[in-house]
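Section: Multi-chain targets

For targets with more than one molecule, the full set of components is provided together so that the structure can be written out for the assembly as a whole rather than chain by chain. Components appear in the order listed by the source. The example entry contains two components.
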Amino acid sequence: MKRLCILVGVLFLVGACGSLPEIRRPESPVPPEAPGRCRRPAIEGRWQFQHAIEAAFPEGQKSVLVGISLVSAQSRSIHFILMTIEGMVVFEARSDQDIRILRAVRPFSSERFARGLLTDIRLVFFRPEGDLLAAGTLTEGSVVCRYQQPGRRVVDIIRNSERHWQVQQYGRWFTEKRTLDIFYNDNFRFDGFQAPHRLKLTAGGYAGYALDMDLLEAVYLEEPK
Amino acid sequence: MRIKKQEVHDYGRIVKRCGTPRTLAFALVLLSTRLCFGWADTWDGLKVAAGTISSVSARFVQEKHMKVLVRPLVSEGLLFYQTPDSLRWEYLRPIKSILITHAGNTRKYIQKDGKLIADAAAASPAMQFVLDEISRWLKGRFDENPVFSASLEPGRRIALTPNYKAVADMIRRIELELSERPGIMDSVRIYESETSYTLLKFTQVELNRPLDRKLFEEIQ
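Its structure, encoded as tokens over all components, is:
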């Protein structure tokens, strides 16, 4: 009986640990910077983006909200606001060196949600800050750059096509997975910068959620003097 | 400066036509009394004016102002109200959305990928609270919600301040500006903080126009 318990425990632990997708034909040695083919269009200056966001929660509820992202490439800061169509702010947070929650109403009031969302949005507009671990291709042929993140997390930047990029984030034991799909079309192309027209965020786990974000407006802002 | 001829009044002739100066003075006093006690000067006056209204249709522009925003977020839409409790609050842009409360049911639909889909927010207590409040305002019952303290202010303004901290955390203050035309609101300003507020401006307001029942029964 004791042996059986140990066996079940070991199986449980093995099952709980995930693994990262295999990178084929990895570049060796690992380049100091990501190769150009897995570099997404970078944002420059300050921008105000307005999204229509369809939020889906574990209970199956869906609701459409308005999202405002104020993004500064210079300070690598993001001010994010989530509000109802009627104009009621349900979530507001700022992310630069740290994440500060300025307003949060249920079901957007958990710190996990705030951290996850702000991290996701940072990865939409900014390159990952950690070291490049590997670069190559995935089994289905997509180009991938793998980065080390704080807290033993790993993030894969994947280019499926010129118009469809993916960001996969893995937790400490590669169990928790967050997926961010980034789509581009020609509707939001600016001088030297192309804004993604659609973003799909999927966070797994018991308090998971999915956000489907359609870009409504992109406004270039002057940098504050 | 050139003055238009019809703007130059001959007070002597007016006095002569109206009779003695004392009669004129009496008439002026009566007129000023009428002007001073308008429809929006007392809670009863507001209820009386609203009591004559069976339906309202209007266009609205919604502006969301926040200190961090370089320019306000602007939405446009239509409002239809039919006594006793039917309301259609429809956004046309930038996101098409229809909220209907009719026969005790509230439904909300939002356009996604060209299709109108049901939105869970229609069932939320917060949304029901807002709808009840709008319905109360359209009936002229501004002072009947115990959640808010209402005060009538000069210039046809009504200020609503929350009586409970839980509400005050969400809404700091509401200011309603009433029209010269009895029963009509010009604008509503909902303050979440001193630097964040939503402004609703109503235009093309029509009262007591027969409204098609389909407006409250069908999503179209």
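The longest helix of chain B spans residues 21-36.
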